[in-house]
Each structure stands twice: as C-alpha cells, then as structure tokens.
Amino acid sequence: MAIIFCFLFLAISYATACDRCVHQSKVAYFSRASALSSGACGYGSMATGFNSGHLAAAVSSLYKDGSGCGACFQIRCKDTTLCSREGTRVIVTDLNRNNQTDFVLSSRAFMAMANKDMGRNILKQGIVEVEYKRVPCEYKNQNMAVRVEESSKNSNYLAIKLLYQGGQTEVVAIDFAKVGSSNWGFMSRNHGAVWDSDRVPSGALQFRFVITAGFDGKWIWARNVLPEDWKPGMTYDSGVQITDIAQEGCSPCDDGIWK
C-alpha cells in the first residue's frame, strides 16, 4: 500500500506542471521518422503507425520519466505567413535531449504546421518558434490495449505497455491479479511506457490502473484482459478506454493568446 501512496504523490507533483496551459518554445524536426521509432518510450517500430506519423520527442519535464509517453499536444508555429492557426497534433513517443527546443517532431508533423503548399518552406527553417498546450488524446471506437512485450518469456515474468490511452491523464501505477482473485500484485515502470513484474501468476489476468484524473488519483479497472494462454508480442483489448481529463493543482491557465 505504501508503494501506491508513493505513486499517488508523484501523480500530484506531476500535475503541478500545468502542461494544459499554453507554453512558448521552439521545435525542430527529425529528417527520418525511424529516429522516433527507437525512442525512449519503448514503442519500437509501432510508433511510426501512431497518429498518422505525427510524432514527437518531448523535453524531460513533459516526458516525466516515461509517464508522459502517449500524451498528445497541439503545436502551432508563430509565423502566420508560413503556418496555419490549426497547427499539428502530436503524440509523445520519445525523450527530447535537445535543450534548445521543447519538442523534436517527425518531419510529417513539422510540415503539418505549415499553410498549404508551404511544407517545404517550413522544413528549410529547421527550427521554428511555437506555442503549444496539452490536449486530450482521442481514439474513436478503439479501447486502450495492452501489448505483451517479447521479453515476457519466463512463466512468472510479464512486461507490458499500454497503447491507445485516451483522455488527458497519466498512468502512475498498475496492479495485476489472476481473474477471479483478490490477491493483487504491482508492476514497476521498467522504462518509458513499459511496465513489468517477475511475480505474475499463471492464468488469465486482470488489471487496475491508477491515473491522474483526480488529486488523489483514480482507479480504472480492466476485469479480463490477458487470456490464460497470453503470448509475447501479442496485443490484447483491455475492454476500457480512459477519457478523463486530469485535474491540476495549479493556478488557472491564462490562455488569452490561444485563439
């Protein structure tokens, strides 16, 4: 139980960042989308299929030791002659270690900020000034999924990552139990979006997730997720979708510039 309280404390402290407010920064781009597919979140080659390839590496304050993986942001550049007011919506798949920018985007996402027929022009800029804010992720007709990592070959070891998490929250704890059992164990964040445990019982598994939907966290229950014969490399429907918008323990945003 002390571990859960620790996670909840982290959830509250992360919320104070107010990433839903509008921020001013700069963004650059990767010339190859594959650079993001090997990113710190651990999505691997799957990443290039997310969000129509509109991907981003986020600075550490947004990456949040991996809990920011899968978060969605609306980004638009401030040069109105070059860029549209809609900008681009990206999903975080990597950690940005470039101290000059808050994001490094896939070239597709970078070009999507531009006005029609101005995509090549914005690429020539290399780095542009932007404003951005976090927005809810939306996956219509798509439940959150649990992917079993290939490393899950030992009968007691299980590593997973969550895909298609909607809403605007972060998962800060994951518990598991055999279906029909109340004997819960906990998983630890291995890296990025990957969680694991070496104490997993055999049989079909259920999960419960703690998310940052409230100041004390919120439980999301997924009653029957992995079948008894779950296999590494397979992705399983959780049967739930997270649509919550996280509360934030900070001053109200002044979004007057975001029109």
What string gives the helices and strands in order? HEHEHEEEHHEEEEEEEEE
How much is the radius of gyration in Å?
A: 19 Å
State the helix count.
Answer: 5
Strand order of the largest sheet: 13-12-9-10-11-8-7-14
- Uncertain ranges: 1-17
- Give the mean pLDDT: 88
Fraction in helix: 10-25%
Query: Strand content of the residues, in percent?
Result: 25-35%
SS elements, strand count: 14
Helix/strand/pairing category: alpha+beta
Largest sheet: 8 strands, antiparallel
Overall morphology: elongated
Distance, first to last CA: 45 Å
Summarize the structure in words:
- By secondary structure, this protein is of the alpha+beta class.
- Helix content is 14%, strand content 33%.
- It has five helices and 14 strands.
- The strands form two sheets. Strands 13-12-9-10-11-8-7-14 form an eight-stranded antiparallel beta sheet, with helices on one face. The protein has a six-stranded mixed β-barrel with strand order 1-5-2-4-3-6.
- A hairpin with a 2-residue loop joins strand 10 (185-191) and strand 11.
- The longest helix has 14 residues, at 2-15.
- The protein is elongated, with a radius of gyration of 19 Å.
- The model is unreliable at 1-17 (pLDDT under 50).
List the helices and strands and how they pair.
Layout: H1 2-15, E1 23-30, H2 34-37, E2 55-58, H3 60-63, E3 72-77, E4 88-95, E5 103-106, H4 107-112, H5 119-125, E6 128-135, E7 145-148, E8 158-163, E9 171-178, E10 185-191, E11 194-197, E12 205-211, E13 218-226, E14 235-237
Parallel strand pairs: 1-5, 2-4
Antiparallel strand pairs: 1-6, 2-5, 3-4, 3-6, 7-8, 7-14, 8-11, 9-10, 9-12, 10-11, 12-13
